[in-house]
Amino acid sequence: MKAYVYGPDGATISDVAQPKPKGTQVLVRVRACALNRADTGMRKGHAHGAAGGVGTVLGMEWAGEVAELGPDAKGVKVGDRIMGSGGAAFAEYTLADHGRLFHAPSNMNFEEAATLPVALATMHNAVVTVGGVQAGQTVLIQGASSGVGLMAMQIARLKGAKLVIGSSTDATRRGRLKEYGADLAVDSSDPKWVDDVLKATNGEGVDLIVDQVSGKVANQNLAAAKVKGRIVNVGRLGGTHADFNFDLHAARRIDYVGVTFRTRTIEEVREIFAEVRKDIWSAVEARKLQLPIDKVFAFDDIDKAFEHMEANKHLGKIVVTV
Prior knowledge:
Elements: E1 2-7, E2 10-15, E3 25-34, H1 37-43, E4 61-69, E5 81-85, E6 93-97, E7 101-103, H2 110-114, H3 117-130, E8 138-142, H4 147-158, E9 163-167, H5 171-174, E10 184-186, H6 193-200, E11 206-211, H7 218-224, E12 225-233, H8 246-251, E13 255-258, H9 266-285, E14 293-298, H10 302-311, E15 317-321
Parallel strand pairs: 8-9, 8-11, 9-10, 11-12, 12-13, 14-15
Antiparallel strand pairs: 1-2, 3-4, 3-6, 3-15, 4-5, 5-7
Helix pairs in contact: 3-4, 3-9, 6-7
Keywords: NADP
Organism: Bradyrhizobium zhanjiangense
InterPro entries: ADH-like_C (IPR013149), ADH-like_N (IPR013154), ER (IPR020843), GroES-like_sf (IPR011032), NAD(P)-bd_dom_sf (IPR036291), Zinc-ADH_QOR/CCCR (IPR051603)
């Protein structure tokens, strides 16, 4: 089968053996896959958790059809239209644990379905399960113009947040955040953004910050959070190391929690997917939670898809059809 594989000379489309499902695994005939920021690093040979390196089939998000079931797989049958996340997505066939997938709604095509699994699982966990958002609260999403950021704002709005603020350093994308749930859009590269947040919250700060940037905005987040507020750190686009004002953190009594899929067990991931199905799946089926597709590429043009992502001018998801 064809797959996009990282090799000694970089990532290329190669012929590899079709995998065979074992245990609770499902073999998926991939029809579309979506790019994520982590894929750009793995394409350059960087590890993502335990995954990466020479011989790795890249990709982590897909939609397609069940082709074969492992002996212990449950909840799906051959022919079902599904979408999910996991390694080796950029291929004609991939394997997925039966608890790490969703049934694709009948009102979505494969390209649309492929945009959702990572964003839904990541941001339902960050905003709802860990962030504990409640109706009437105020929320700031750092890095809001990314696919997962756009989903975070929509989930916050769905759960009844009274004020949703999104940040983006790109003026064009910042201007579109209101289409996806933001009441206010701020530029996190402008030091005045904290003042804008405090003004919008009558000087109190926000109840919840979901931070995909970290780095240089870490102390600004502390200043923008309400006393006894919560900061959920889901990314490091602004760098992995930075100065941290421990006194301000303590003074504002902020809960600061880090989350990532890289160190979660399969049991923990299954629970996250189950919570999405239980809590917000009806909104997915009603298309109240969806992401824009910026551009679709054919599988043979997957390098061009990555070039488009690395140009960093897109809003929404970049999709590759297989």
